[in-house]
Amino acid sequence: MESLRMFKSTISLSCFFMFLSYVTILKPTYASKECDFPAIFNLGDSNSDTGALAAAFNWTPPPYGETFFHKPVGRFSDGRLIIDFIAKSLGLPFPSAYLNSLGANFTNGANFASAGATIRPPETIIPVGIFSPFYLDV
Hints:
By secondary structure, this protein is mainly alpha-helical. The chain has helices at about 1-25, 50-55, 65-70, 80-90, and strands at about 40, 110. Strands 1-2 form a two-stranded parallel ribbon. InterPro entries: GDSL, SGNH_hydro_sf.
């Protein structure tokens, strides 16, 4: 009975990610002309980190975002992230990582996402030491 419930949960999760892929990659949806968003602000973890952890600690594991940007940009992906597609659909530039303030332009928003980020302070999570020090209160 437990294995059936886990199977259904896995199928549901797989369907969700297939739908998300379809909506964001295969069939991009663009913002209506009536929308006028001057900026975009993002909070998140490695799924939307555009270089914050790399800026803070000067280290990011490969692939760094090299395939799309043709140089290491500190991302935990090999190209653009969902936040980049959202910004593009709104007619905004890719959001800059807040911790990467040198040369960044925050007039169109900022990306506060950091790989390994959590909601709770890292010392309240076991095991300690494998999460980003940038949690929601920071």
